[in-house]
Predict the 3D structure of the following.
Amino acid sequence: MGIETKPFDAAKYLVGDRVGQIDLITDAFATGHADYIGAALSTVARANRQHQLAALCESGNPRLDTVLKVVHALGLELTVKVPEPA
């Protein structure tokens, strides 16, 4: 007998938590991993009940214009900064 598990969806824990949503997206962009960035945007879109945006991010490797549209629709903006020295 194996352990019974249930699906986990972080989106339901981020509903109404704007700081948590931004932290997730910021962490994803910091890694530079396209799959993680897409998953983070999708999670935040679902947390904001914008399921049509979530589908865009889950469908593979979205183009930059798609990412920018999703970020804008979530009421966010992208910025670039010089990383602090290690």
